[in-house]
Amino acid sequence: MARAPAEIDASVTTQSATIASLLLDRREDDHTGLRFEDRAWTYREVVRECLVRARLLQDLRPDGPFHVGVLLQNVPEYVFLLGGAALAGAVVVGINPTRRGPELDRDIRHTDCGILITDAEQATLLRGLDISVPQERSFDIDSKRWKERLANTAPADVAANEIDGTAPYLLIFTSGTTGDPKASICSQRRLCGSAAGLVSRRSVTASDVIYQTMPMFHSNAQNAWVASVTGGATLALRQRFSASGFLPDVRRFGATIFNYVGKPLNYILATPEQPDDTENPLRLAYGNEGTLHDVQRFAQRFGCHVTDSYGSTEGGITIVRSPDTPAGALGAGQPGTVVLNPGTGRECAPARFDGRGKLANPEEAIGELANRQTAGGFEGYWKNDEANSERVRDGIYWSGDLAYRDDDGFLYFAGRGYDWMRVDGENIAAAPIERILTRHGCIELASVYAVPDVHAGDAVMAAVALSPDTSFDGTEFCSFLAEQADLGTKWAPQYVRVAASLPTTQTHKILKRVLRDERWHCDDPVWVRDGDTYRRLAQTDIAAIEHAVSRQADSHGGPA
């Protein structure tokens, strides 16, 4: 007899559940659990597929770490492998398919993958690499060999109490925007707790359809999947994110919830607006790193609520917006969240704003976002003691991100730890400048970063992507900057790179390290501030800048 969708108590989930127990609770549930293109699986069918993968993984278990590298796009097999690994007690290593050559080889070797699952398209990325996974434990899901192996494998017989919920379950690579990605450890218990919080806050039930287009190797997507299992909702999976395909998919799947990370809101808003955009079933979009401007426009255009919050892959800090959150603020953090001076360990002074809304005391207010109560929940990075020591010091979890806090306790993002710029002896954070630049009607995306100044310290450089059918006008841009009352006197970009597109990770985060390294050595036009306008940077300008920067470095005994 078919069982109705179960309602799982979020408080119980937080305390004791594992991914394995959540799945086993759904093994007789005939509600639709997964949709992909024109296919659908009930939860009963999903769990059976997961149990088959569990048995297969158990049969393939290597002598070393039980780590399963998954190099796939968003396909049902990814979901079945995530569930199978949970039921088998294995660890899933979500491999980023945008990595190439030695970087990709490094990721697989660093995480000690003993089993590797890929497909025909992604397998081409592995050609020429001397990866450490033997042929007998490497599979292409499009191959006859894989399909026959599945057909001849019986579902595993698993009891939920056999699974250690505190053991590693996922190795989630950080975005790698500043260097080699770190592999963050996540247990089944922690992921269950995170998903239960999402289900509780967003009222996820079996009537919801979660539209999942973010890459499945990312924590945002994995959290959405577990939330769907926890609440009994349907997960509607798309192989790759598509801005033009967003609204047709929402209507076709009957999607009520859309999760995102990075810039998808901006990309969707760049599609042509239609008079019937609000005629859709979407009630909620949630994620992080959306600009306030995009959040407001998206909510209005598609007639839904948008919640943009802050959360770290490592799980140490969560900041959620509330209705009374001031414009530009992230929201309020969970208990123990503080802004600390990383040098002294003392709490930074509250932010003071002048009459124009500009931060008046950045030197004393901006510090590192930290939490004094969550260090015990940080499960570490795989084989990276140095990064573990940076993340937890003196019993405090340090996020590596810059922030400031107002008198009411609301937190404001000021950039990553590497986003400090020293301009004319003053410390400047990138994020407030980026927020101001995106107010310009023609600027869709903005990334601000430090480049060497010809005299000393740093100069401010911005890379911007413009709206379609617009162009950069140096004089008009100067006028726009002069009208921004909260733009600091040293915040205006010295250089502006006008890019057709900005380099991003697969999770749509801007690769600022690439922009910093390229500086003005790029195919995009770069403009330099010249009085009350900006003019195109010429090759003679670049030669003079490089000479001055080199002389400055020589005088200080350091690299340019």
Features:
560 residues; alpha/beta; 18 helices; 28 strands; 31% helix; 24% strand; globular; disordered N terminus; disordered C terminus
Largest sheet: 7 strands, mixed
Number of helices: 18
- Give the strand order, joined by hyphens, for the main sheet: 2-1-10-9-11-12-13
Q: What would the principal axes of the Cα set say about the shape?
A: globular
User: Helicity range of the residues?
Assistant: 25-40%
- How big is the Rg? 24 Å
Q: What is the overall pLDDT average? A: 89
Distance between the termini: 71 Å
SS elements, strand count:
28
Structural class: alpha/beta
Strand content: 15-25%
Low-confidence stretches: 1-14, 553-560
Concise overview:
This protein has 560 residues and is of the alpha/beta class.
Explain the overall architecture:
There is one protein chain. It is built from 18 helices and 28 strands. By secondary structure, it is an alpha/beta fold. The strands form 6 sheets. The chain has a 7-stranded mixed beta sheet, with helices on both faces. Strands 6-5-3-4-7-8 form a 6-stranded mixed beta sheet. Helix 12 links the parallel strand 12 and strand 13 (305-308).
Describe the secondary structure blueprint for this structure:
Layout: H1 10-16, H2 19-24, E1 32-36, E2 39-42, H3 43-60, E3 67-71, H4 76-88, E4 91-94, H5 101-110, E5 115-118, H6 120-123, E6 138-140, H7 144-151, E7 168-173, E8 183-187, H8 188-202, E9 209-212, H9 219-231, E10 234-237, H10 246-253, E11 257-261, H11 264-269, E12 284-288, H12 292-302, E13 305-308, E14 310-311, E15 318-320, E16 332-333, E17 337-340, H13 362-365, E18 367-371, H14 385-391, E19 392-393, E20 396-405, E21 411-416, E22 420-423, E23 426-429, H15 430-437, E24 443-452, E25 458-466, H16 474-483, E26 495-499, H17 512-518, E27 526-530, E28 533-536, H18 539-556
Parallel strand pairs: 1-10, 3-4, 3-5, 4-7, 5-6, 9-10, 9-11, 11-12, 12-13, 25-26
Antiparallel strand pairs: 1-2, 7-8, 14-15, 15-16, 17-18, 18-20, 19-20, 20-21, 22-23, 24-25, 26-27, 27-28
Helix pairs in contact: 1-8, 3-4, 8-9
